[in-house]
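hiii, so i know i said id send this last week but things got crazy w the move. better late than never?? heres the sequnce for the chain we talked about at the cafe, plus the structure i predicted for it. fair warning i was half asleep when i ran it
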Amino acid sequence: MGKIDKEKEAIGYLKVIFSILVAIDVSLVAWIFNNTALLEGFKLLLPSIVVLLITTALVYTNKSILRKIDNLEEL
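okay and structure toks below
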């Protein structure tokens, strides 16, 4: 397998991870908004931290995808 094919496969894999993270992030945010009446204090803090971590993972994954796309131009 050539180097360009490996990069394309890595980009495809990262796109799948990105899609899964988007679905999880949107679902968690919707769950938090639907259950704000039940969540108080620490019970609201923990899901908010998880959303923040998943959003950070989304940003990192997006940057990785864009970096790999830029590397394709050099190959």
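btw The helical segments are 3-34, 42-74. thought thatd interest u
miss u guys!!
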